[in-house]
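Sat 14:20. Reprocessing the chain from the morning session after the first attempt stalled halfway. Input below, unchanged.
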Amino acid sequence: MVKYDDLRVEWIRQCVTAGFVLPENPNPFDELLGQGDGEEEEDILRFLDFVSDENSPSCLLFFKTVREEEIEVNIPLERKTDDASDADCSPSGAEIPSDSEEICEGLELQVVRHIELHMSVNDFPKQFVKSTVFYFIRNTKDTIVQPMNKKETPFVMGRLFTIGRHSGDPLVSLHQRLVNMYIPLMTAERMRETGAGYESGEVGGGKGEEGSPAKPSGQFTIRDELLHRTYKFLGQLEATIQQTYIEDEIVLHIPELDLEPTVDVLLSDPEMVEKLEQCLMNWQTKITVVVEEQQNKKPQAPGPLAEIALWQGRASVLNVLSEQLNQPVVKKILEVMTKADSSIVQTLEGVVAALTKYRVEADDNFCFLTTLKRNFLNLATASHLSGILETIPDLMGSLQVVWMISCHYNTNERMVPLMEHTAWRLCERVRPIIGVSTLFKNKREVAKSKVRDAKQVLDLWKSSYFEVRAEIEESGRNQRWEFDRKKLFEMTDYIASICQDLLNVLQILEEFYNIFGPELKGVTSDPKRIDDVLCRVDGLIVPIEEFSCDIFKIHMMSGWKTIMQDFNKTVQAIELVAVDLIDQSFKTQRSSAAAFDMLLKFKHIVSREAVNNHLMRKSNDILAQYCKEVDSINDMFEAEKDKPPTLLRNEPPVARAIRWAQSLVYPIKQTLLPFLKEPQMLECENIKVAKDKYAEMAVKIRDYKVKKFEQWTAETQRNLPMLMNNTLLVVSADENQVEAKLQLSENLQQSPDSFDELKSVLGTISDIRDMSVDVELRYIDIQESYRTLAIYKVQVGKDELELVGKIDQIWKELSDESKQVDRSLTDVKTSFVQTTKDKIGEFTQELSIFAESFNMHGPGAVGDDLEKGLTVMGTYEKDLAKIVAGRQELANAEKLLDLPVTVYPDVISMQRDMEGLRQIYGVYKAQQDAKAEWSQMLWIDLNIQTLQEGVEGFIKSLRQLSKDVRALPVAFFLEGRMKEFRESLPLLLDLKNEALRDRHWKELMERTGTSFEMNDSFTLENMFAMELHKHANVIGDIVTSAVKELSIEKGVKEVVMTWENMKFSVIPYFKGTQERGSVLGAVEEIMLNVDNDAMNLQSMAGSRFVGPFLGTIQQWEKDLSLISETIEVWMMVQRKWMYLESIFVGGDISTQLPEEAKKFDNIDKKFKEIMSDTVKGPNIKRCCLVPNRLTYLQTLSDDLERCQKSLNDYLDSKRNAFPRFFFISDDELLSILGSSDPSCVQEHIIKMYDNIASLRFDAEGDGETVAAAMVSAEGELMELRKAVPVDGSVEEWMTGILLEMRRTNRLITKEAIFRYCADMS
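Finished this time. Tokens:
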């Protein structure tokens, strides 16, 4: 075998060798490249190396031809020994006597076929048009680079070339490729790109399922148009092939005769007339055959377009024949034969009339069906079901028009197949869109839309039919549509019912996902159970997706119904779980208000009817609870109404009583009002009782409050006159007033020697000035009060009146004094201005240094080190307070000295930032404290809801801060940290999954670089320290693996539990009324379980998560295989034993076959031992996995097989002795052989002899039994001339009876002939 250094050439050699199935020694490819100077190999290399233009051809062609050659070869002939006198090995045929075997040779011509290859680049030579060709088409315009090694050669070269093999008619080959490859490929590609129109933005917001943006619809329009045109091209191609066939095959042969003379001249030539008559006979035969072929021809495909193609082809063929009959030469021949009065002319005319009839019918049908072609093309090529929905009414209307107008397509025989093909096409369009293996991988809305549209298409097909049918009936002008509805709608109705089932499944899934979503987790205390239920919900569709057969085949209806029944049972079980979760949630609610809030939440998320009905019953329970609460409050009111409890300190008694009563009625009112707004509550039977109880309580409280108020009013009116006599103003001693005035006066009279003393004096002046308005308002108010007392003639003491009279004078004197002192200090203030300015300069410098430190190192400049920021926060707060105090002191000095107040923007900015930072760090400190508290929570007590509510509260608090505060960098870092913490909470929930085992925790510690010990004292502190948000992918992988492994673990446990508990059904075996032992009952269900579990284990073993259970699964696969094989052999042994036991035990066969009977007794003993052991412990696993049990059973099977063979040999020997035993079965023959009573053959005589019902046995004088006569089924008796004794073996005396029957018949026949001749004479 030649190896080429260029890996590209070697790859081409391998492809051509495999494609043409070439021999290796010698290989025609090597011979081709070895010819001449290696020009072919150079052409190949040139083809591989050159860089082609954009539109230039790039094709390498290999052609296979076979050259035949006759050669003479020597054939060795073997002559056998001389006693075979007819064996002649000499070419002359003479005998060659010999006492021994001789070898001689002869010549023989043999045809040897030589395979030759030819090659061409970018050219198809004419001489190879009909040869088989293998082609390589370059997919690149660049040089084909040589691969690096042999391993990568197939992959590299396979991408760069399109290769293929072609033979036969190119048009037929192109047609086959279009029909079987390219059109299905283009359709599938379009379906993949557009998702049947459901991924192009029509559902789900304009994105496909993978989230990629939908492509422009224009591209899909181009693809649809291309597919549409491809179908049209296919039609043209079929027409061309049909026309080619017609031109080659449908030809009326015209004899090569001189037909130029006139008709009369031709008539005068008898030989000419005879030839023309033969020609007409040939035409008649040809036309008849062609018409019959066309009439029997069926559509080549099940779709409606094939129906059109059928009529198009039929019309073409029949038109060609008609056109040939209209040729002048044909008409002349017909004229000659008509005048010749040939009988064939009339026959031909009848055939031509039939041809014309069928041609007109074909033309008419094709014409009308062409009007439907556009609709049929839309059914086949529409990119979306909406296009089919638009097409169906138009199509049905067009069918109605065809039915009414067409002369031939208005019968059931024509219309029903067309509609049946149309229904098939609709089903074929719908099936891939709603295929259950991929349907549930779509988004639920997309899947529901697909199924809904598919059902609408199928329903519209049926409804459109009945609408048109009704219109035809109403018109009364045309024949009614009374078609076979089973053919038209059986499949579409079945698939529509599946669509409805799938819609129900999708709706149920959506409802369950809504029920068991995050909202339910938020209102229940058992999120783990919800996750388990969600796993069951996910598993609902697994049997549907894994259904091994095509559910759309109508014979799978029972299988589909079984799946849906199982689905509905599981749904009911999940509904019970939902009801139980709801009950548990309501048990934790202590008040009717909380229970009602819970009910509203459930109502928002629940949509299953069974669950809603359960919630309706909860409404009654809530109202009953509300009634109990009202009764409890009523009891409390009655117990404490005389001495109400204190709600606020220092509150008057009456107000306290009214407030207490109001506090009792307010909660029950606020609880009842939402009840009255909810229609579901208003429909409950307890609502009236609840309203009545509230009304009774509200009236009681109202009366209590009114009574209290009336008592207070009466008491007040009684005590008011006495209270009005009390003194309004408490008199202050004159000494106090004078002392206060003297104190202010003393402060004003100081002589300031220092700046502090000056500030004290100026401060006193400022205080007097600032309080002047307030003081004036106060003494005016006092004077007005005393004026009011005077109006009502209330007695007031003399001292009070004197003090009121001079109070304004006292204040006026003090104010005047302060103004005088202020004027006197003008010179002093000037001397202190410079000092104040110097202090302002020093403060400005100090402020600059602090501001720089605050901005560079303050609590707002710590980045994401919030703990450091919290530490330095206190220091900078104190320092800023000192700065603010210093600024305030200088501002006060400036005000006192009448200087403009200096503004310090840095102080204002730092104050603003500090206030924001204080709020931010307050949130941070609270969050840290909460986190520290949470970190002490035990892992087993994890309440994720507490953590979620807590962190959400902190994030909400942060977001409630002002926009400027949230703009600070620290706020950004804090929000980011809290969001990271929030994002880690679902990971905590994931890690809480029951699926996690110790191996998963160890893997988690390894991959995150942490270490901890999982025990009962494990707290969340370790989890927080792990910073879970940084390891989300790791945790996701581990949890996913754990969940998958748990599923496998449960599956394995299920298998183990099944086979640990599954037992054989052992039943007693009776022969008549005698118990002969025990046998296994039906094992079909056991074998079904074996197969199902084996498939499940195989599926688990194929999972990438099987690692921890691989050994167990492999062992169980072996065990189940052994169990299956053992049961099969066991049942085979049991069947053989039951058959042979009835023969060898208790019968005479054992005496006739003593050796076999002895062997069977041994087998019988062993089998009964096995069955006895099985009765004691019928566990299947134990029984089948007993060491060597399978080998033991196989040995028994072999032994039984040998017994069976011996028995068969024995029966065959009896049949050979008396061949008529072949007419009866083994059991019947055994019943004869096993009995010593001759009459046992009676019931089988009718089978061994035609119409012989029985034998007549007589007893001779010596007691010997003989067969004396044969009795027919009609009772006719044939006496045997010589009775046959029936002693000895049955086959012997049955043979004697047969021979005697023949002898008797011969004698009777002879006598009949003799007597007939005598009578005639």
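The mean pLDDT is 78.
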